[in-house]
């Protein structure tokens, strides 16, 4: 993936799973002020696509800034600082996903998201 490119990714065989959508983006690793929670592969990072405020899809990439925007409630996440929220109502960072490139050249998760994806109240009893 070239720098600044973003791609939606889904778990193989589970494209209908509500908490599985994620996005991959390649950033300049020299610009990271905090390490990505799921790690990075030469700047390639993967994060949950679900906003931590209300679970809306975070799909607007502000090229050059390293920020993702949730268009529903205007939360903005700084991907160069571990996807921490920098504006809007979201209070926690986007969960990262640890990944590797397998021998066939496919991107594969090596574990689960670093924290529960989506809105925090989803997991409350």
Question: Which keywords apply here?
Answer:
125 residues, mainly beta, four-stranded antiparallel β-sheet, 26% strand
Descriptive account of the structure:
The chain has 125 residues and is mostly beta strands. It has strands spanning 6-9, 22-26, 44-48, 60-62, 67-69, 76-78, 84-87, 99-101, 107-109. The strands form three sheets. It has a four-stranded antiparallel β-sheet with strand order 4-5-6-7, with no helix packed on it. It has a three-stranded antiparallel β-sheet with strand order 1-2-3, with no helix packed on it. A two-stranded antiparallel ribbon has the order 8-9. The protein is globular and about 40 Å long. The mean pLDDT is 90.
Tally the helices.
0
Average per-residue pLDDT, rounded, comes to: 90
Q: How do the strands of the widest beta sheet line up side by side?
A: 4-5-6-7
How large is the radius of gyration? 14 Å
Q: Give the helix level as a range of percent.
A: under 10%
Low-confidence parts? none
Order of helices and strands: EEEEEEEEE
Query: Helix/strand/pairing class, anyone?
Result: mainly beta
Termini separation comes to: 40 Å
Reconstruct the topology from this structure.
Elements: E1 6-9, E2 22-26, E3 44-48, E4 60-62, E5 67-69, E6 76-78, E7 84-87, E8 99-101, E9 107-109
Antiparallel strand pairs: 1-2, 2-3, 4-5, 5-6, 6-7, 8-9
